[in-house]
Amino acid sequence: MRLIPIDSIVIDEDIDLDTFISLSGEILRKGGVDRSVVVDHNLRVVDEKPLAITLKKLGVKYIPVSEDYSENTFVSLESLGFFDDVKPSVMRVFRDTEELLYRNWPTPLVMLKSLSTKDIRVWAKLEGFNPYSMSVKDRIGWYMYRKAIDRNGSRPLKLLVESTSTNTGLAIAAMCAIHGSKLRAYIPSTVSKTGELLLKIFGVDVIRSQKALTVELIDDVDKIAREENAVHLNQFHNDANFEVHLRYTAKELELQIREAGIRLRGIVGGLGTSGHMSAISHYFKNRFSNVKIYGVVPKEGTSIQGIRRVESGMKWIHKVVFDRIVDVDPDDAAKTVIDIARREGILIGLSSGAVAYGFKTLLIEGYIDEGDYILIFPDHGFKYVEQLQRYI
Question: Where is the Tryptophan synthase beta chain-like PALP domain (predicted)?
């Protein structure tokens, strides 16, 4: 058995989501792999193909290989270069604006004193520090676009169409600007004028629908993509949404936890497509014992931009474990945004306000024990001043 760079192996196949979740869970629980991948003299994988594909999706740098038969041997994640993906530019120098995104990770993790007590420390992961949409959606916009280029034989993408409530559209628009593509965005009626204007500033053709939810536009956009031979990345069903958060977001969060000496008890985050929180749940439920995962959604009959009800249709949440889903009223989310701005000096988005209020609800209801809790704040608040105006 020997370790070789994973990019040197040849494998043209893919695996289904259930197989990936099963194998990646096994690797995360064990903290490594216990067998080698079989390759021929051309380094083409001939046995243990699902394992090889899973390791590639997880972003390891090296892969254990052997010839003739798979050898039983344990190789740790660290030896596989599992964490090598998370290497920020120390002096903050970037060769282009795409590198500005992924070499700027990890996004900051900061303690919130206003929510912490003597026995409970609350940390916020600030996804608003991503440069394109100032939100967590930059990760999926970048990864989905990159995967689409790979599928297209590295040829440029001409026209993309996407249903978005702003952030994913901005992220894809940034990638289109960098690589010379064109984006047409279909937005629901609930999107603010600010969101629509931002998309147009990025050069996006914006079509506003009478439908209230982004997810309700998927079939319409899919039909348009087929008719116009356009690329529909489809954030709601594209597994790159789940994979990017498993490969980067969750992995970098583990390194930050180590750095801060955090005694992690739980993670709280909002549910939109369910991509980032499902990946975080899968990662931490397998890597750590007794970590609770909580999701936050709008109260029934209401809406909060960026998150939605589970029953509206989510793909990945049904593949993982959540310990509780918390309902939050939009008024409470908005008031919490203002409260955190006035107590912590940072402006967060409405879905982030919902996450913070969701944590408060869990605390009141007795779900929070001593230890450390991480709140995933999906975006910055600058896009929501229009909605926040009536609370001032």
Answer: 104-378
